[in-house]
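P.,

For your records, the input lines for the assembly:
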Amino acid sequence: MSQHERKPHETAHDDAWPAVDDDHPHVTPVSTLLAVFGALLALTALTVGVTYVDLGPFNLWIALLVAASKSAVVVLYFMHLRWENAFFGQILIGSLFFVALFIGIALVDTTEYRPEIDAASPPGAAGRP
Amino acid sequence: MSTGTTTTGAGATTGANDNYLTCDRGIRSWLLTLDHKRIGLMYMVVILASFFLGGLFAVLLRTELINPGPTLLAEEERAWDFYNHMFTLHGAVMVFMFIIPGIPAILGNFVLPLMLGARDVAFPRLNLMSFYLWLIGGAFFVWVLLSGVIEVWLGIDLPGGGGLDTGWTFYTPYSTTTSSAVVPALLGAFTLGFSSILTGVNFIASIHMLRPEGMRWFRMPLMLWALYGTSVIQVLATPVLGITLLLLVAERVLGVGIFDPSLGGDPVLFQHFFWFYSHPAVYIMILPAMGIISELISVFSRKHIFGYKFIAFSSIAIALLGFLVWGHHMFTSGQSALANAIFSLLTFSVSIPSAIKVFNWLATLYRGSIWLATPLLYALGFILLFALGGLTGLFLGALATDIHFHDTYFIVAHFHYVMMGSTLFAFIGGMYYWWPKMFGKMYSELWGRISAVVVFIGFNLTFFVQFVAGSQGMPRRYANYADAYTVYHQISTIGSYVLAVGLVMVGFNWLHALVRGRTAPANPWGGNTLEWHCPSPPPHHNFSRPQRVGDPYEFRRWRFDPEIDGYVRVEGDPVAPAPEPAPAGTTDS
Amino acid sequence: MTTGGASETGRPPHLAHHFESSSQQVETGKLGMWIFLSTEILMFGGLFCAYSVYRANHPDIFFYGHQYLDTMLGAVNTVVLIASSLTMAWAVRCAQLGKQRGLVGFLALTLVGGAGFMGIKAVEYTHKWHTGKWVGTANMYHPAKADGSMAPPKTEADPAGAEPAGPPSGAEAASQPFAPPPDRSQVLMPSTGPSGMVALEPSPALEPKAAEHVELEDLPPAERERVHIFFQIYFMMTGLHGLHVLIGMGLLAWLLVRAARGVFGPRYYAPVDCVGLYWHLVDLIWIFLFPLLYLIH
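Structure tokens returned:
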């Protein structure tokens, strides 16, 4: 990482600054990794299986819920968030909030003006929508 | 003394003139530098060059508009095409290459680690990569835009040509059907955006992780709060611009029909995508400017900033609320009435934190010991012009009036007041303020003040009449207009020449300072933020030891010393408890 | 001041000059990576927005279009990526414990997983190409014609055979590179498609709700001409995702080379950790893409 050659002016003042080698990370146990993998496989099977059952509009929400569960497991264990600085989780949640904001308002607007556009374009015509 | 001398270190003594400018020589030491200060200077050169280019075209635009009918070129069709290419270049270069990167890349890069008492930003190599991304994207962008203008002007064909005539906003379906070189321009803008994102990542990590002992969040200078808010916006909003530009490229190259109605797409959706970034982008432009103003107002009133926490929270509030209002650019575009109402209401809310800041700055000035130095002249200009620009924003946030003002010169005047009258003024003020720190040279105060007045007069002459013209119905982006508007355009054009003269004077003042300026002291203004605690110019490492942190606006720690025409530390610090005995042989920093 | 493997100035060799401790350096690197991941989430978020808007406004098209995606291949891809996430996380563990062979092995397995994913994607894309469901080539932007007029973008032929509005496309489409032959319609009827890797006839073993298979005629007339919207979104989303997989594979290859040289260990594993975070994000995006594109109701 810092393997560039240090020039004289770069090393001159290092002594006055602390330089501590103190990194002791949490290491994920193999059993945890494998358990997470198993859970992900099970959830994948679940999400495919649910498509065979007709629950009307709920199918979409169940699919999203399962996807969110899989994501949570990946984030917490594979991405180590369970043992990391809570701020990283806040960054993640924050970005998801802004995505939801964007999608939400765009959906509200486009579904609101959709009827006006549909009314203006005659159905079945060879013209463009 | 004005330059740094230290005696610490493993036997290595630094010379009296050893600073970040002189410590290493040769072009490679600049092009491959990891020093945030040098990167800031390299950005300064290229960004000011883009400002010059954009400004040149502004003057050309105004010259075209001095009369109705074609002015610069004889044949009408070519003249209008030329005009479209010119205003697109002006807008795109100014927005993407000057005003969005400007303050963070130049002043932020230089000052942020110094204010943190740190030795560099969190990711120095990423910083250099940001610079090269800017350079590559910018070069590409300028080539596409400029070649297009030249092509239309001279009637020739250049490689990569076609230019761009969509306006900087790339609205569909024109941008998906025009024959100009939209795709290369989009790729250039994408690269510039990537540079912006990486700078934002760097600054957020730096502020979180490199603060010294004792600098908790509410002990940070307000400039850092401003840069933090800016970086949050850069990180969250710019990726959406990225995907928007990519989708537009896909639309043109592959015929993907997401935005083009003839392909089944939705042009209003393009505007949602575009403005979701571009509205927060204007807060990327203004927040760092406000950070500079907080510093300037406080230092040049010799008074603690009034309402520190309010200003800090307002920076974050502006950053967050700025994401809720993008639809106010689309009131007349076919957005639904429901969304119109929601966005109009939210738009009014975003004016509140800005107003809070203005009140706090005024309260800081009140009964302060005011020093009308050049930086403060720009700060005072900022307050007036930002107030005007911001208030006119309220007219635009109200649906009933926006119907009439949208796409008129009222809008043009509004955003020039907030982007140019505010951000540019703050940028110039900040440049003057930190110039002695960056170069160890003082500029001419007399010419600084004169040029500030010229710029102020020129700016208002150019843009104030545009409010009137717009309210009378003069549309924007029109090269031709009815005779009734001629007087407004002529005043505006004369104003633009005055403004150009003023800005050239500023440039000459800086250049002259570089060459002939007298040596600057470490702290010419008596500021207490940490960058004034190291020599002017700073050494390569900034500081030789971790800094003791106090209140950034505690000015009683400094007294004026006429011998060096600058400020020095008061012996026996009047506000701090008795300090630990200083290590032998050091005079601090 | 504790040092390990100190340089002549007493600093640990991997500690950059502007950091005061290894933990600060590692933490800062991870913070930077997480912030970068949030930018990726916002970027893909834009695509999810386009998806949401079009699916909400054209649900029939989405159901119709998704029939042409092979659920089995999508599920296999999901499992492949999940497995590669496992091997990636295991590789980080090996780096932290100094297990060089494990590190190299698991990095290689992750790379293989990524390659497998792209391979299956290539199969799917090739099939789409052969069955004429490519990314709007018939609608490619046309430069200005010789007489100076602008040729408007092509619209696909109505499968029902009606004349499309706008200039005829036959000769021009044939002259464009990569365009399918002009006599192919943009979207094929499920029962008339050529046999490819996927059975276009709904197979009771695989296809959900075979009884509710949708034909083109089942769609409202105005929607029949917009079915390409589903495929545009499909290609944009899986295409950008695939590009990120390729970038990830490049990063993994870089790590593999360095790991083989023994660069990483308990003192210095940050790059493995950070690339791992990136790779998991790629997996996360696919976790959402799969049900949203392949498992539509």
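Two observations worth noting. Confidence is low (pLDDT under 50) at residues 124-129 of chain A. Helices of chain A lie at 8-11, 30-50, 58-78, 86-120.

Regards
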